[in-house]
Amino acid sequence: MNAGTSKAERTRNFIIEKTAEIFNRKGYAGTSMSDITEATGLTKGSIYGNFENKEEVALAVFEYNRSLVFNTVKAQLDKAPTYYEKLMVYGRVYKNVISSVGNRGGCPILNTAVEADDTNVPLQLSAAKALNSWKKSLMDIIRLGTEAGEFQPGVNAEEMAVSIIALIEGGVMFSKVTGDYRHMEHVLATVQALVNRIKA
Question: Ranges for the HTH tetR-type domain (predicted)?
Answer without folding.
Answer: 9-69
